[in-house]
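Annual report, structural modelling task.

Input specification for the zinc ion complex:
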Amino acid sequence: MSDRRLAVFAFIDAFGWEILQRNPFLEEELPHRAPVETVFGYSSTCIPTILTGCMPREHGHFSCFYYNPSGSPFGLCRTLSLLPKSVTRRGRVRRYLSKGLARWYGYDGYFQIYNMPFDKLPYFDYSEKRDLYQPGGIENGQPTVFDYFRQTRLPFHLSNWRESETRNLEAAVQDIEAGGVRAVYLYFYELDAVLHNHGPEAPQVQEKIAWYEEQLRQLLHTARGRYDEVRLFVFSDHGQAAITEEADLMPRVDRLGLRYGQDYAVVWDSTMGRFWFFHDEAREAITEALNGLDCGAWVDDATLERWGCDFPDGKYGHAFFLVRPGVLINPSYMGEVRLAGMHGYTPEDRDSTAMIASSHPPAVLPRRLDDHYAMMVAEAEWAAGGAGGPAPAPPVPAHVPVKREEAA
Ligand SMILES: [Zn+2]
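The model returned the following structure:
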């Protein structure tokens, strides 16, 4: 009987199925591969879905900003909006300010004000104030897979998202060498930035993937020297599409002369405008202003429901205008830089599709991001099953999706 088992989960942001098809990556070590359907939104939607096994409408995470003037932590930004644009548009100024605000309010989540106009910030609240990876990090209180590990006393190693990839790898290898952990969760985020900056076809992407390949090969080698059985699961949250077109959509709404905060509100993400309408005329005018454009379309309610993004009370917007894959809304509240790759399009697009590649057939094959939770729980149970492990884990908590809304 084998006695020392280790399950390694390596999350690589934006390593999509199509990108995996185009680049060599641990073919021998990870022969089991499958596309995984993503969820609508950005990593701020996808990661909570992976960690909880719940769809966005349940866990409550979507984009960072949602309309909530009475609960907004950004009141003091009103004064900052008087500063000249040459100061306020600087990335460094915004990064310092994000840090300062996070410290002031005691937020430990991933907190960034991006390119949000300072005069608009006081209308919004922020959804990732708490660290997702720590207990109580999920908006609607669902436990994550790490809470499950903690609850079942499974010794595990978890990357620190504030640290560099190299530091995180070193820390993981150290814990593997010590031999005390049964599960390792590695968090890699740099590929996403490489794809944004250079596009999915660029040689830099191949270089970065080759680097992951080398690092994970070494880690596997170390782990196999220390444990009797090691399983490695590499997976992602979404892919990226090459940007072929930019859409300058903000002026189309600005020129209607509606009052922000009284008639309507909007957050311009990189691929969608999320609108709140405060009366019917505003709704009609804005709907009409963006109707019939070639670059995108309004997402209907049935589609949002199918995507699991029908949030109660329109928390993240009463209506979403979504551009088609390959279009970048620029400028937007997220930035005004010309990018080469983007995500956050329809989850049905092939460039949006995520992936899993593993050394063993997963105990539960993930078909969509919300299946990863059950997969990780099952593999952790396998890892715990060896001698010297913790007591057998209790059954999977009831919130794990048993039903799934099949896409029509
Ligand atoms: Zn990204």
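The first strand starts at residue 5 and ends at 12.
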